[in-house]
Amino acid sequence: MSRAGDGGSFTLGGASVAPGARANVAIPVAPLYNQVMMSVRAHLFHGVRPGPRLWISGAIHGDELCGVVVVRAVARRIDPRRLAGTLVAIPAVNVFGALHQSRYLPDRRDLNRCFPGSRRGSLAARLAHLFMKEIVARCTHGIDLHTAAIHRTNLPQIRANLDDVRTRRMARAFGAPVSLHADERDGSLRQAASRRGVPTLLYEGGEALRHDATAVDAGTLGVLRVMGALGMIDDPPPKAPRGLESYDITWVRAPRSGYLVLETALGARVRRHDRIGTLHMRIRDEEPGASDAVIRAPGPGLVIGHATNPLVHVGDAVVHIAHPGGRRAGER
């Protein structure tokens, strides 16, 4: 494999792409039980000038679809004849899950808990190993695109190691409304890539199995801003206003089971004790309202996610709040 812009080709999945050219590469993973081969497809843009090698990936969780659209939207804007470095754009990593509209692989494993994978392990481990070998090992930077899990929605946000200078620079360039300093989950792509010295952002926005135009637009503009900050493109979108950087998040949980009526929204600023929802504990009350429970914000912050299913059990996470400052935010 050659570096971008040194006069040589860039090799991926057995295909070689000359400087200033693009290619669609299919990397075989495994056949279905009917022997139809499933492949991970990558849109490869090999620039004419030296520069970073960035991957962007969607649908590691097969039901998280907004990232698929972000990758395609970014790819449509890239001209390899004007590009410095190389862009590797993978719309759907977990093609098996996307086919079945499922977060998981057919072996019921979460792919984002299986990195760096194994050549002889489970289907999930083999796919993770293949992605590390073919994509991450050939790149210098990465952006992994997600949505919230089923029955939740997220404000566009970045989760990253904000204590790492290179990663923080990428996060600030992305321009999301909020960036969380997030611990790396064992087995996640972000952890595996970071351990190889590849600064990686995890983007969250929208809801599983739903198209969210706001999340797609924010993700597309964010990726292009990062490419501009890395010197890969000359005409990135304008800088976004500086978003909140937080090391402290809280999931507000339902104090009882019932029917949830939210009284806040994504991106809302809340103060301590602000009313953010009401739980109707009995759908059929002899006296309507007699059994209601008010949910209040535990402290000041920004609403970055919430449940979308009003039917909740005690302990369910209902509202996600990022607080200014603090230390340590968790990762999905």
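[next item in queue]
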Amino acid sequence: MDDLSKIIAFAIEREKEAVDFYTDLTDKARFVPQRELLLELADMERGHIRVLQSLEKKGFSKLTPKKPLNLRLGDYMIPWEKPLAELDYQGILLLAIKREETSYRLYTDLAAETDSEEEKVLFTRIAGEEAEHKLKFETLYDEDILKEN
């Protein structure tokens, strides 16, 4: 297994962990909209797995990095610290924002550390996907939580 295959395998494992995390949280969700959001999150992570698996098969020639808008709400949020059993809609959004932010930083850091152009493009692309997810949750937080208060 070459280095790029190991990197893709690592990224796939991270995405699988995220799927498991969000899926496990659905059991703790108290309301249908919370469960639906958590299932949507898990589906987004499954989409990452499919993208990574297809990259491994098809290669990187048509892969282009993404640079989505960043509302930076996550920069100013305190992470969810209550037990997961007490998770409400706001908590789900906070948790999702922080997880996507952490994944974004991981892939951005990996892109900065490699000398391989293929790996740089791969990490930058995955980081862009994570940033898009973070933007989605920051937008929901802005619309549903901040505007209501």
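[queue empty]
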